[in-house]
Amino acid sequence: MQFNYDWNLKETKFTKDKGTVFSTFACGGGSTMGYKLAGFDVLGCNEIDSKMMDSYIKNHNPKYSFLEPIQEFKNRKDFPKEFYELDILDGSPPCSSFSMAGNREKDWGKEKHFREGQTEQVLDTLFFDFIDLAKELQPKVVIAENVKGITFGSAIKYVREIYKQFDEAGYYCQHFLLDSSKMGVPQIRERVFFICLRKDLASPFLVQKDLFDKVPEINLDFNEKKIPFKKFGDYQGRDISDYAMKAWAFRKFGDINIAQSKKHADMHISDMNTFYVYDDKVCRTLTSKGEFGSLLFSKPIRLSKNEFLKIGSFPLDYEFIYNDWGYIVGMSVPPVMMAMVAHQVYEQWLSKI
For residue 116, what pLDDT is reported? Predict the structure, then answer.
């Protein structure tokens, strides 16, 4: 099953015939759009950031929207009846504490705030608040997305605790490291997906994992044809600064970022996270730096907005209102990536329950 990375919200018919979903940590609705593309009816969202919520409501017109921390949301006593009949509970708990590009262990247990200035939170415990919500609502399936760094080094202890708490909540849990460039998205973006099936529904799907454990069988191997930048690039992005141009002029084929070009030019080394986009290659992971996180190797310009949206598989007519389009797309699950996961969960599990 393929989904188009070059698309518009207004031109797309969403069937809403595959089941119901509720999304937490919804941001601008990247995962929501993926579920909708796969045919699910997304009832609404929980989000802490009012600006993100404004964009979500503008683009998705949800039946339910809850602007509050998940620590408060999970303890509500007035959930609609529909929330106790969900097919999928979705969430992307903030994950910067586990990012390979961040401080990792140095930041674990510390309170942090997002750039928009919401209430400070201990980010590495939000996943467990999400599991508490799953325990209360008991959806058929729970899907949670996170950075791949959560499975490396000392962070593996969090994965063990995630498994333990999902088990206590009544779910079989598995996690998969997926790459969006193999899923019809023109971007190399590796993310871990925790896919959980409620135990009372799992019997028809159980297979022996090892000598001691059985798990619900699901195949999430994707091998879509990779999409190089030149297939959709319009080369209409903004010119880079004169200072960046000096470094760009010293670039060498194979340079990953402009910092390497600065080294060739004997300039002050910075911009480690400003990556080159090669015409014949798949774009590297988009970041919340937006257009300033990438520049073309073949031409001294940034990515255009339309290029950025296609790389993130966001609809070209998405209304960002007053939000930074690069930040939202860089922070979001690519809709096509989520659509591919949701489609397989429906085909292999939900359609057979």
Answer: 47
Q: What are phi and psi of 85, to 5 degrees?
A: -130, 25
Q: Indicate the domain borders of the chain.
A: 20-226+334-352, 229-329
Give dist(CA 302, CA 341) in Å, integer.
31
Query: Which residue, among 22, 13, 30, has the nearest Cα to 313 in the 3D structure?
Result: 30
Q: Which two tokens stand for residue 69?
A: 């921390």
* Residues sharing a CB contact under 8 Å with residue 26, sequence separation 6 or more, in sequence order: 32, 45, 46, 47, 52, 53, 56
Instruction: Give me 233's structure tokens.
Output: 């690039």
Q: How high is the pLDDT of residue 209? A: 83
Tell me the per-residue pLDDT of 273-323, one tens digit each, with 9 for 90 and over. Answer: 899 999 999 999 999 999 999 999 999 999 999 999 999 999 999 999 999
For residue 245, which amino acid is it?
A: M
Give the global pTM.
0.92
Beta bridge partners of 141: 88, 197
Taking only the tens place, the pLDDT of each residue in 311-321 is 999 999 999 99
How far apart are alpha carbons 139 and 131 in whole angstroms?
Answer: 11
**Three-class SS state of 190:** strand
CATH fourth-level superfamily of 20-226+334-352 = Vaccinia Virus protein VP39 (3.40.50.150)
Rounded Cα distance between 240 and 215, Å, is: 51
User: Is there a contact between 209 and 340 (Cβ–Cβ < 8 Å)?
Assistant: no
- Cα distance between residue 7 and residue 103, in whole Å: 36
At residue 3, what is the residue type? F
Strand ranges (E), the chain: 20-24, 41-47, 64-67, 88-91, 111-112, 121-122, 141-147, 171-179, 190-198, 206-208, 214-216, 275-277, 294-296
Query: Which residues of the chain register pLDDT less than 50?
Result: 99-112, 114-118, 121
Look at residue 98 in the predicted model and tell me its pLDDT.
57
Q: Residue 242 and residue 95: Cα distance in Å, rounded?
A: 35
